[in-house]
From TrEMBL:
Lineage: Eukaryota, Metazoa, Ecdysozoa, Arthropoda, Hexapoda
EC assignment: 1.3.1.48
Alcohol dehydrogenase-like C-terminal domain span: 170-257
Domain Oxidoreductase N-terminal, chain residue ranges per copy: 19-112
Claim: Oxidoreductase is one of the keywords in the record: yes
Name listed for the protein in its UniProt record: 15-oxoprostaglandin 13-reductase
Signal sequence range: none
Entry's Gene Ontology BP terms: prostaglandin metabolic process
Gene3D superfamilies per the UniProt record, alphabetical: Medium-chain alcohol dehydrogenases, catalytic domain, NAD(P)-binding Rossmann-like Domain
Pfam family membership, one: ADH_N_2
Length: 280
């Protein structure tokens, strides 16, 4: 008879760390809203793989969706991770994967869609000399939001005047460059001179610093014949100013509302009267 201790299977426990959603956001995030905790991961089951984080995403949508997270749950977000163990032939060891794993160091994943966005993890193309971080940028959610949001909603045409709020961000900067490829007159609106200098360097025709300039007045200078397409990442009074300059049959793609993400409960951004909205 074999000793009892030889019949007991040793269970491998892997320790990892994660950020948990500890307290609802109210205004600007504080250190107490998130906490780092240790977790223990069990052995892999058939069909699972273990991925080690390489890059974590920090995107504006996370703030907007965070109210759906139960307190104590892992902070949401995308990852580029390296597969370090696997019991799934479709996710081999050594390959990199993009998934909705949240803010954690190690993840047990499967091929099933996961996270609030319900997207299945996918492998990074093998053998391509592409920086892995781009899969959370131009090849990820920001780039796809810019490409499809602008081309499918705004439907830019040669010579159109395009205004972009939040132009210095990951989405807005890509929209502006796509608009230039489409031979449009591009106006970028951001909150700093440094961002605007960079926007000029990537081809934007006009730039507006909404913190130091009157946006309505600046738009009259940059778009004397009105705005045909507006890609909105900001909302609020700034977007009201742009909408006042929209031409008949203009197109507006509403991608985000950054102005409202950090307001305290009960606050709402100010809006102007849409006196010319009938032109759209």
């Amino acid at each position: 008879m074999r000793p009892l201790k030889t019949l007991i299977k040793k269970v491998k426990i892997t320790k990892a760390h994660k950020f948990i959603y500890a307290r609802p956001f109210n205004g600007l995030p504080s250190e107490d809203d998130l906490q780092i905790v240790e977790e223990e991961l069990p052995e892999l089951k058939d069909g699972e793989f273990l991925a080690q984080a390489v890059y974590l995403s920090v995107d504006p949508y996370m703030r907007a969706y965070s109210y759906k997270l139960p307190l104590g749950s892992t902070m949401m977000g995308s990852q580029v991770a390296k597969i370090v163990d696997s019991k799934n032939d479709n996710y081999p060891i050594g390959r990199h994967v993009v998934g909705e794993f949240g803010w954690r160091t190690l993840t047990i994943g499967t091929a099933k869609p996961a996270g609030l966005l319900k997207r299945a993890p996918y492998l990074v193309p093998d053998g391509e000399a592409i920086p892995l971080s781009l899969f959370l940028g131009i090849l990820g959610l920001p780039g796809n939001s810019a490409y499809f949001g602008f081309l499918e909603i705004c439907k830019p045409q040669h010579g159109n005047t395009v205004a972009i709020s939040g132009a210095g961000g990951a989405v807005g900067s890509h929209v502006g460059q796509i608009a230039k490829i489409k031979s449009c007159n591009v106006i970028g609106i951001s909150g700093s001179d440094e961002k605007n200098i960079w926007l000029r360097s990537v081809g934007f025709d006009h730039v507006i610093n909404y913190k130091t300039e009157n946006v309505a007045t600046a738009l009259k200078r940059c778009a004397p014949n009105g705005v045909d397409c507006y890609f909105d990442n900001v909302g609020g009074e700034l977007s009201s100013d742009v909408m006042q300059r929209m031409n008949r049959n203009g197109r507006i793609a509403v991608c985000g509302s950054i102005v409202s993400y950090n307001v305290t409960h009960g606050e709402l951004p100010k809006e102007k009267q849409f006196q010319k909205i009938y032109n759209l």
